[in-house]
What does this fold into?
Amino acid sequence: MAKHTHQFEFEVLDHEVELNEQDRNLLQKAKETTVHAYAPYSRFHVAAVARLDNGETIGATNQENASYPVGICAERTLLGTLSSVYPNIPVDTIAITYTNHATGNSNSPASPCGLCRQSLLEYEQRTGKPIRLILAGETGKVLIISSVKDLLPFGFGPDDLKG
Ligand code: THU
It folds into this structure.
């Protein structure tokens, strides 16, 4: 039997002012984009804004539904849009943030759910470039993850279908 360990490094900033200007602008755009969330049920308004290798930025939000499981997270709304509008353009960085109108507390980073990690990972593999993630609340610490694969070790991928 062999034992393996898995670890990864990520950055923790005490405050968004520590971000470089380009990243701070992306996070700012994500914060502004949360107003477009349709989240009347959870009142948890999420935005994901991507900076692409072609210089474009494109954003998306969570879209809920009275039939709760039909709702879709901001990250997967973003990937569907990206893949349709800018197919095959690698993504450099995605800033993800939220405003929690249910509690009024949005002061720590939230990270993508399991479904979104799976979708983000395949997008990263498809476009062949690690996607950086900037995770932040309205205030407080900011996390920088250098690649989606760090968030989903042992993720299922196209190769698994080949057996
Ligand atoms: N949500 C996202 O948009 N992204 C995530 O990674 C986690 C959760 C949304 C789904 C739902 O509309 C609301 O946040 C509360 O779970």
Residues 39, 42, 44, 46, 62, 64, 71, 73-75, 112-113, 116 surround tetrahydrodeoxyuridine (CB under 6 Å).
